[in-house]
Amino acid sequence: MAAPGENLRINSDRLWDSIMEMAKIGPGIAGGNNRQTVTDEDGEGRHLFKRWCDAAGLEMGVDEMGTMFARREGADPSLPPVYVGSHLDTQPTGGKYDGVLGVLGGLEVVRSLNDLGIKTKHPIVVTNWTNEEGARFAPAMMASGVFAGVLDQADVYEHTDKQGKKFGDELERIGWKGTEKVGDRKIYAFFELHIEQGPILEDEGIDIGVVTHGQGLKWLQVTLTGKEAHTGSTPMPKRRNAGLGMARVIELVHEIAMDYQPDAVGAVGHMEVFPNSRNIIAGRTVFTIDIRSPEKEVLDAMDGRIREGIETICEALDIQYKIEQVGAFDPVTFDAGCVKAIRDAAERLGYTHRNIVSGAGHDACWINRVAPTAMVMCPCVDGLSHNEAEDISKEWASAGADVLFHAVVETAEIVG
Fold it and tell me: Could you give the CA distance from residue 128 to residue 66 in angstroms, rounded to a whole number?
C-alpha cells in the first residue's frame, strides 16, 4: 500500500483548541478534570464530541455499552473499517489529556482528511470507549472488555459505585445507552494515541513511543479483619490490629515488586480503615493491590508470593483475611504490522522514536484480542498522570497525532 507523503500533517492548532474546549466540561479543582464515566459531565462531553463529529460529516453509532463510533465512509463501504480512538472519561482528579488526546487526535485525523480532500479505501471510525478509567465503576476498560468478550455485559450493568448506583442504570439515565449489539463490528485495525503516563520519553528527549507490548496486571482487593479496641487500654500483645496488617502488606508488595526489576511494579492504592477513629485500633481494613509486569510468569509469581505473604502476616497478628481478584488481564503483544506502520510513520515524519512497553492498561489491550492493534505514545511532563497537574506540550500532541494520522491513513489506503 502507498504511504502518505511526509508533507501531510494534522492541524495542530485545531487539535489543541479542541482539547482545551473539552477540558471546560467537568473541570477539576486544580486545573484538571473530573468527568467520571456516565456522570452528567460525561454526557455533556459526549454531546460536544458528537457535535464535532456531525460537523465533520461522520455517521454516529452507539452500542449498548454507550461506546460511540463515528464513521467516515470509505471508497469501498463493504470493507472493515480502520478504528482509531480512546476514551473521554477521567479520574476524579484527572488531567486534560489522558484518553482525550486519543479521541480528539482520531477526530483530527478525519478532519484533516476532509481538509485535504483525501479519500481512503477503508472506512475510518473514531471511537470513544465507555468507562476506560474504572474509577467510578470497576473494572477499568469496561466497554472494550465487553466488546472483546472478556467481560459479561449483563454483569457489568449491575456493578455499583460508592453510592450504590448501578452502571447500567446510570448509562441509561444520561441518555447514552445505544441499541447496537456490543462486539458486532468488524475491525480491520485499531490505533490508539495516548500520553505515556511515565517519564521515559521526556527523560530521553524522544518524540514518539512505539508501543510494542502492554503490561499485564492484577488488581486484588484485600479485607483484613481484626478487633476494634481502645488504643490506650489494650495491651500490645492482646491487639488484633488490622491497620498493622495493612501496613505490613504494603511493605510486602513493595519488596516483591523490587525483586522483579526492571519492569515489574506494585503498590497499594485505595485504602479504607474502619472505624477510622483516633483512639480505636482498626478492626477492619479494605485496600487494593495493583501489580503489573509484561511477563505473565512474573505476574503469576508476584501474585502467589503476595497471597502467601498475606497469610503469614495475618497468622502472626491473629487477624483474618479475604482476597478477591477484581481486575486482571494478561500481558499484551501488539500486532507487528500495526507497530511497523507507527514506526515507519515516525521515521517518515522525522520524529525521534523508541520502542516502549505501556505500563498502564488501555482499551487497545482488549481490542488487540479481536483485531490487529497498536499504540502511539507522546511524552508527558515528569511522567505525571491521573493527576490534575498532568501536562503535555502542543508540540508533543501534534507529533503524536501526525504519526497517528500517517499510520491510520496508510492502513486505510489512500484512493487515487
Answer: 9
Of the candidates 175, 222, 215, the residue with the CA atom closest to the CA atom of residue 50? 175
Strand order in the sheet with 284-293: 265-274, 284-293, 216-225, 320-329
Three-class DSSP category at 8 = coil
pLDDT tens digits in sequence order for the chain, 416 residues long = 567 777 889 999 999 999 999 999 999 999 999 999 999 999 999 999 999 999 999 999 999 999 999 999 999 999 999 999 999 999 999 999 999 999 999 999 999 999 999 999 999 999 999 999 999 999 999 999 999 999 999 999 999 999 999 999 999 999 999 999 999 999 999 999 999 999 999 999 999 999 999 999 999 999 999 999 999 999 999 999 999 999 999 999 999 999 999 889 999 999 999 999 999 999 999 999 999 998 999 999 999 999 999 999 999 999 999 999 988 888 999 999 999 999 999 999 999 999 999 988 899 999 999 999 999 999 999 999 999 999 999 999 999 999 999 999 999 999 97
Contacts of 47 (CB under 8 A, 6+ apart): none
Distance CA 398, CA 117 (A): 20
Residues 184 and 167: their CA atoms lie apart, in Å, by: 21
Coil, helix or strand at residue 400: helix
CA–CA gap between residue 370 and residue 158 (Å, rounded): 25
What's the number of CA atoms in the CB half-sphere (13 Å) around residue 315?
Answer: 6
Q: How far is CA 66 from CA 44, 89, 108, 199, in A?
A: 13, 12, 22, 33
398 bridge partner residues: none
What is the number of residues in the chain?
Answer: 416
> What distance, in Å, lies between the first and last C-alpha atoms of the chain?
12
Q: How far is CA 36 from the centre of its chain?
A: 13
Residue with the three cell numbers 452528567: 40
Residue that is written with C-alpha cell 508476584 in the block? 302
Classify residue 63 as left (phi > 0), alpha (psi -120 to 50) or beta.
beta
- Exposed/middle/buried for 235, CB within 10 Å: 0-12, 13-18, 19+? exposed
Q: Which amino acid is at 302?
A: M
Alpha-carbon distance of 20 to 48, in angstroms, equals 12
At residue 168, φ and ψ (nearest 5 deg) are -60, -40
